[in-house]
Amino acid sequence: MTPELLNLHGVSKSFANGTQALAGLELKLSRGEFVSLLGPSGCGKSTALRLIAGLDTPDAGHLSWLGGTRPEIGFVFQEPTLMPWASVFENVWLPLRLKGVSRQKATAAIEETLALVGLSSFINAFPRELSGGMRMRVSIARALVLRPTLLLMDEPFAALDEITRSKLNRDLLHLQASLGMTILFVTHSVYESAYLSSRICVFSQRPGRIAAEIAIAAPGTRDETFRLSQIYLDACANASAALEETMRGAAA
Description:
Helices cover about 35% and strands about 25% of the residues. By secondary structure, the chain is of the alpha/beta class. It has two domains: about 5-70 and about 150-250, P-loop containing nucleotide triphosphate hydrolases (Rossmann fold, 3-Layer(aba) Sandwich); about 80-145, no CATH class.
């Protein structure tokens, strides 16, 4: 069996204004999975990512890691959050630089990572010279340069047009296959979650918990023909029904 990388047990989180974001969240991640968190705005999906990344702490419950230690984690936010005054090279260098890696020693890793995301020829460009999709690729490269065990992605493609979004979806699956990392991906899109995921976790309305899980037994390699397959169509239908059910429950 694939080893369990992460277990969230009974995790709850409230904020100073009284908002309870999560209540008794149960979530397990295994190595190599691509898991999407699907749900309405404000249901605690992003809060869950922040807790996993160690950017915040739960009020109750606990997180346990394989081996007892949090592994290297990459985080890609909805906005690329690039330094506008810095080149692509310098933006991707940032995590290594914060770890004390010199420019010279970091160069090989940066060049390799930019090749993975298709930006080798833009290594000296500045963010203002790049399209939205290219800026997001730089953000992904910055998260990947440390070769994380777990990649957290918080609606990274939400602001992009559908053509660019579809291309980055395909590229993301290729990156996962190449690097063997686990990905936890937040999205509002049923179609995106069904295309990318080995498992979809549908969140309830706030306070968030997992209301339904949908496993997708799809082939290892997914291309555009997968979007026409019965497996994909069934996953979309099941995710839509689960999302509708949780929304109906909140309105009752």
